[in-house]
Amino acid sequence: MRIVLVALTLLLAAPVMAQTTTPGQVLQAAVSQAIRPGVLEFTSRASGLSIAMNALCRAPSEGTLALVKGQFRQAALAYGRVEFLRIGPLMEDNRADRLLFWPDRRGIGLRQVQAILAEEDASATALDTLRAKSVAVQGFGALEFVLYGTGAEVLPAPEGAFRCAYGRAVAANIAGIARELANGWFAPSGIADHLTAPRADYADYRTGTEALEALVGLVSHGMEAVRDTRINPFLPTEERAARPKEALFWRSELSFEMIGANMEGMQRLLDQSGIAGAVDADHSGLGASIDFEFRNAARALALVTPPMEQALADEKQVNALNYLVIVTGSLQAMVGEQLSAALGLSVGFSSLDGD
Amino acid sequence: MWQRRAFLKAAGAGFAASLLPRQVLALERNELVFASAVQTASGGYGAVLLGERGDLIASIDLPDRGHDITISREAGRGVVFARQPGTFALVFDPDGREAPVTLTSVAGRHFYGHGVFSPDGRLLYATESDFEAAQGVIGIYDATDGYKRVGEFPTYGTGPHEMLLMPDGVTFVVANGGIETHPDFGRAELNIETMDPSVVFVDRRDGRLVGQLRLEAGLHQLSIRHMAIDGRGRVWFGCQYKGAPSDSPQLVGYATMDGAIELVELPAGTLADLRNYVGSVAASGDGGMVAVSSPEGDLLVAIDTEGKRPVLVDTLRNGCGLAADDAGFVATSGNGEMVGIAGAEREARKFDFLFDNHMLRVG
Q1: Residue among B245, B318, B334 minimizing CB distance to A204
Q2: SS3 string of A148-171?
Q3: Could you give the C-alpha distances from A290 to A263, A269, A300, B209, in angstroms and in order?
Q4: What global pTM score does this model have?
Q5: Between A228, A233, A349, which is nearest B187 by CB?
């Protein structure tokens, strides 16, 4: 049925939107309409989280803790909308891992966070010494454990002082990295300029083709990462039962919203850049097909509700998640292969996959 | 190295049976034969044998994407390894007397796409991942007993990639890329902050660690992946940098069995055009040159191994596969092109399949 609908969408959309956008406009719009606004939003949310953590530590209370948790959600989702931007500033200085070390396959990060809390390691409560520690204890994963993990019930009380101080340092670190990201994307003669006006003597983007390949690659690899690190690890398979604790943010019950934020961020880049409008008339329906798959993804996500353990015990929700795996794979192929080919790019065969 | 006539004699019966007359002609007049894994026009995967003029001699289908190929005249077999984290390796018989055999990695292991035969062709070795322990291993297969897996050696590191047999015939050199992955998480790289790449020499007879070489500590995010051995027995390697993209570390170096490891200084412009990514390394027939490729930077660089400096820089869109021919190198691309560089005079050819990262000179 889905195939029929895709075909129909292709037919209906075909005559209209051929080559309405030039590659230069695509790159310009990607930066100004999607990337920079996304990074600024994250900076603002991260700053809100840091302020709220300060307030909690100064005056611990249930009310302030609830505020902090709300800010945590906002900041994490704002990051979810930009975390696929794995070029330039996010890849400098281990920032992506410092913001969110995931997957933590062997639980190394978790054990390090637990050790900091158990030993009341004072060096984890000051920003400069925290930054020198393992990437796994500096970001959202660590802060989620501080706010929702075992022992978090002390936070609204005076005996939660150390836990709060550590959380405050982590939140400040997240806010600092968010500012660095924004600074990177707004730096004069920085990545934004290189991406939007490539030049042969730039080390990163020498031609418009390379810049477009980078954009397409972000979404194609982003889809792969969502599927491989945010959905598949917890789904039941023929060989094993569901593993709800392999889900990112199962404690804060933000797992599904985070997947939604990831998809939203990638959709925003495609939509706002108008990249699907930069293809020739033969491929003019591709944009509509991609939109259609994003709607399918949103529909599947609307069917799942935390807590993770209960969701994975419900066949209907597991089916929706399995469907989401298919949709992310389909989007990866549509963007990484079909759109890429329609734009005359070559993404992903012998390069860009680290082999 | 197979001689052309030996190959013809060996290959003729099996492959030629299904070849068209034009292809038989190609086989008969070719001087050199090359092999590569490919993606077919229909999106499937396979491996091909090509004559030096670009004639397609034979092809086999693969269940999924292949990576590197190794061939042993002594074993009378070639092997295409699945690209990581694949779980198959296809053993084919150039003699055509037996159908291809598909090996499957054992539980808890997957292939990394590279391997070698023992000099006598009786054992096949493959780089593999013990992914629960995040440790690399060399899987050992008995070519005389249906390629049964008979054991494994450690690679003394994580994420092993290419392995070669040193000219002494008893020492392996393995590039431990240093990157942890796990099939539960697809191709996600799990330890970028703490990766620990190395070049190791391992005794083929007992798996003993002969030597382990690391680059300086500041370069722990420089993943050592592909290698070739020059005329003096030095192991040239190419790296992929996983640290900040604005860093531009040197990417090509060599290691020796007596414990030296160093990066060579490529000029800044050339280095920048490699884009922190070397996809394959090959040595020339006389071992006096090595070539490296970057499909990310569309660049091919040939380096004089004595002077340790580039003697040729060329571009090839999405170019990665490299193999020596009699004069220079043959290079192939993910866009389906095959060209000659560094003295190899050959007409550029375009195929309707796409070449994977590695090209092997068969004979």
Answers
A1: B245
A2: HCCCHHHCCCHHHHHHHHHHHHHH
A3: 12, 12, 15, 52
A4: 0.91
A5: A228
The residue assigned the tokens 């900076």 is: A43
Q: pLDDT tens across B123-175, in order? A: 999 999 999 999 999 999 999 999 999 999 999 999 999 999 999 999 999 99
Both tokens of A39, joined, read 């990074």
- By the 8 A CB rule, do B351 and B336 touch? yes
Show residues of chain A in contact with B334, CB under 8 Å.
346, 349-351
Closest Cα in chain B, distance from residue A155 (Å): 31
Six token digits for residue B132: 């629960």
In chain B, residues with a C-beta closer than 8 Å to the C-beta of A103 are 182, 184-185, 188, 190
- Residues from chain A that touch B357, judged by Cβ atoms under 8 A, are 350, 355
| Per-residue 3-state assignment (H helix, E strand, C coil) for chain B | CCCHHHHHHHHHHHHHCCCCHHHHHHHHHCCCEEEEEEECCCCCEEEEEEECCCCEEEEEEECCCEEEEEEECCCCEEEEEECCCCCEEEEECCCCCCCCEEEECCCCEEEEEEEEECCCCCEEEEEEEECCCCEEEEEEEECCCCCEEEEEEECCCCCEEEEEECCCCCEEEEEECCCCCCHHHCCCCCCHHHCCCEEEEEECCCCCEEEEECCCHHHCCEEEEEEEECCCCCEEEEEEECCCCCCCCCCEEEECCCCCEEECCCCHHHHHHHCCECCEEEECCCCCEEEEEECCCCEEEEEECCCCEEEEEEECCCEEEEEECCCCEEEEECCCEEEEECCCCCCCEECCCEEEEEEEECC
Are the Cβ atoms of B184 and A105 closer than 8 angstroms? yes
Mention the CATH class of domain A36-186.
Answer: mainly alpha
Q: ipTM of this model? A: 0.88
* Cβ-nearest to A91 among B194, B245, B318: B245
Minimal-distance CA residue of chain B relative to A104: B190
For A47, the token pair is: 């700053």
Q: Sketch the domain layout of chain A as residue ranges.
A: 2-27+195-342, 36-186
> Which domains can be identified in chain B, with CATH numbers?
1-60+268-363 (2.40.128), 63-214 (2.130.10.10)
Residues of B with CB under 8 A from a CB of A: 39, 67, 83-84, 113, 134, 179-180, 182, 184-190, 192-194, 223, 225, 240, 243-246, 248, 272, 277, 279, 295-296, 317-318, 320-321, 333-335, 354-357
- pLDDT tens for A81-112 read 999 999 999 999 999 999 999 999 999 999 99
